[in-house]
Design a protein that fits this description.
single chain; mainly alpha; two-stranded antiparallel sheet; 13 helices
């Protein structure tokens, strides 16, 4: 009975990451290609694609896999219904997530450590904190695979309004429904810190504040000192550069 349960758990795990072909009972033979998709995924926390394990791996490795997976995500079929990803795309994402987060969830400290690998020239900790807060929709101090793909589905496959709402939520640090200059300044400082001091052209110390002033000049339509969600969405839709940048994500995965 114990062996049967163990084999069933392994089968479920391999279905999630696409490393097992349920039709033939053999390991998957598909090879990932180095496309823009993989390059983009490397910039996302917990999303570095890894090679799929073969079914011939030792029992010791299988036991380790089971012991480290503390949180098992929803079935791929259910996640496919709830997101705008295909089952194959979800399996690619899960392989990368499991590679970086074998326990099935990531806390803020690990999230920061993973994110810092992509910005070694600067300090990404504060921006990673804000990003973690945006993905941690349950506010339980951890991001599961479900949390991750739900957010990613909005960013990459959502409507323009969906994406802008997600961005607004990222900038609205205290979640009171509006963005203040102080909140936007905190975001801008974290971005400049993340990019590092040795960028070209060199950024002046007052660059974040100037960016905030420009932001509010454009988006604070009634000049009341805060930017609401309606002002934010309306202003972004009128900005050709913002719209073009958002369309770059359309075919990433």
């Amino acid at each position: 009975m114990k062996q049967k349960n163990r084999d069933q758990s392994l089968s479920e795990s391999r279905e999630l990451d696409g490393s097992y072909d349920q039709l033939t009972g053999n390991p998957s033979t598909s090879q990932s290609k180095k496309t823009i998709k993989q390059r983009f995924l490397k910039l996302l926390p917990c999303c570095t694609p890894s090679t799929a394990p073969s079914i011939s791996q030792s029992n010791v490795e299988d036991d380790f896999e089971l012991s480290t997976v503390c949180h098992r995500p929803e079935s791929m079929d259910k996640l496919e219904e709830q997101t705008k990803f295909t089952k194959k795309e979800l399996q690619v994402l899960y392989r990368g997530f499991k590679n970086e987060c074998p326990s099935g969830v990531v806390n803020e400290e690990n999230f920061k450590n993973i994110y810092s690998q992509f910005f070694p020239q600067g300090d990404s900790s504060m921006y990673a904190h804000f990003l973690f807060e945006a993905f941690d929709t349950n506010k339980n101090g951890s991001v599961s695979f479900e949390d991750f793909v739900f957010g990613l589905s909005i960013i990459l496959r959502g409507t323009i309004n969906d994406r802008l709402n997600w961005a607004f939520n990222l900038y609205d640090l205290n979640k009171d429904g509006c963005i203040t200059k102080e909140e936007m300044l905190d975001i801008m400082k974290s971005i400049y810190d993340m990019m590092g001091k040795y960028t070209y052209p060199t950024m002046m110390d007052d660059a974040p504040r100037e960016h905030v002033e420009s932001f509010f000049q454009k988006m604070d339509q009634n000049r009341d000192g805060v930017v609401t969600i309606d002002e934010f969405i309306d202003s972004c839709k009128k900005d050709e550069n913002i719209m073009q940048s958002m369309q770059l994500f359309d075919n990433v995965i």
